[in-house]
Specification:
Blueprint lengths: L1 E7 L7 H11 L5 E7 L6 H7 L3 E6 L13 E2 L1 H6 L4 E4 L5 E4 L2 H10 L10 E4 L3 H12 L4 E5 L7 E2 L5 H6 L2 E4 L25 E4 L8 H8 L3 E3 L2 H15 L4
Parallel strand pairs: 1-2, 1-3, 4-6, 7-8, 7-10, 8-9, 10-11, 11-12
Antiparallel strand pairs: 3-5, 5-6
Helix pairs in contact: 4-5, 4-8
Length: 247
């Protein structure tokens, strides 16, 4: 058997196992298996790797995209640029190489959703590994942005500083936090949603539920919305391209 998997803290919301299991079936890869590995802390990763010597690759999700880095032997340029890892390549020689496919996944998904226009600006909600990948993708697309966090000492803005006037100047809003993820469907980032208009585009990296409260509030104001499922698929395919070199 060739083993793959997802590392995270709480994985009941994840579609990754279903996605790759279906992929293996469609490709006739009967000796391939994708598992979910819930870790109480990233310090459990070495024991996991020792217990599963047939691992070819791992996906990494919240909250370990940044804290996993010290446990890896090397970083691909994509991961070095972001400072976060969502894909681990387990090389045959025992080398663990970290990659980031969230950048390409988000960038290519955003291209089909947000129409480029003169003076376009964005707000990125969150400060974790996913938010960092979003920031790099926006840089690639030459879209200026502010990062929004709860930390008044961090660079960027706090949620208290998001005024209707600020929203009027930033038509693209990206939720790169896990807020609103199943089973917390009744939660959403704290924004002045009444200030949204049909000129706004709300992208939620959350994909379970398919429509988050963040998206629903945007739709009620006439905004265009999109969830993170397409990004999930695109980053997963990029991960598969990395892993299959060792099959």
């Amino acid at each position: 058997m060739r083993h793959f998997g997802l590392v995270g803290r709480s994985l009941s919301h994840s579609f990754s196992q279903m996605y790759f299991t279906q992929k293996f079936y469609s490709l006739g890869l009967v000796e391939h298996e994708y598992q979910l590995f819930e870790l109480a802390s990233i310090g459990e990763l070495p024991a996991l790797l020792a217990a599963h010597p047939a691992l070819v690759g791992l996906n990494v999700t919240v909250p370990y995209k940044e804290s996993v880095v010290p446990y890896l032997d090397e970083l691909a340029p994509s991961a070095s640029r972001v400072g976060a890892v969502n894909v681990i390549e387990c090389r045959p020689e025992g080398i663990l190489r970290g990659h980031n496919t969230d950048v390409v996944g988000f960038r290519e998904s955003l291209r089909t959703f947000f129409p480029r226009r003169e003076g376009a600006r964005a707000l990125v909600l969150g400060a974790g590994g996913a938010a960092k990948a979003v920031g790099v993708a926006l840089q690639d697309l030459d879209i200026p942005y502010w990062q929004v966090t709860r930390d008044s000492l961090a660079a960027g803005l706090t949620y208290d500083e998001i005024t209707p006037q600020l929203l009027a100047a930033h038509h693209l809003i990206i939720n790169a936090t896990p807020v609103g993820t199943y089973p917390h469907n009744d939660e959403c980032p704290r924004l002045p949603y009444a200030a949204l208009t049909d000129h706004h585009y709300l992208y939620d990296l959350v994909y379970n539920p398919a429509e988050t409260l963040f998206m629903r509030k945007g739709e009620e104001a006439g905004a265009q919305t999109k969830n993170g499922f397409e990004m999930l698929c695109l980053q997963a395919e990029a991960a598969w391209d990395i892993w299959q070199k060792h099959l």
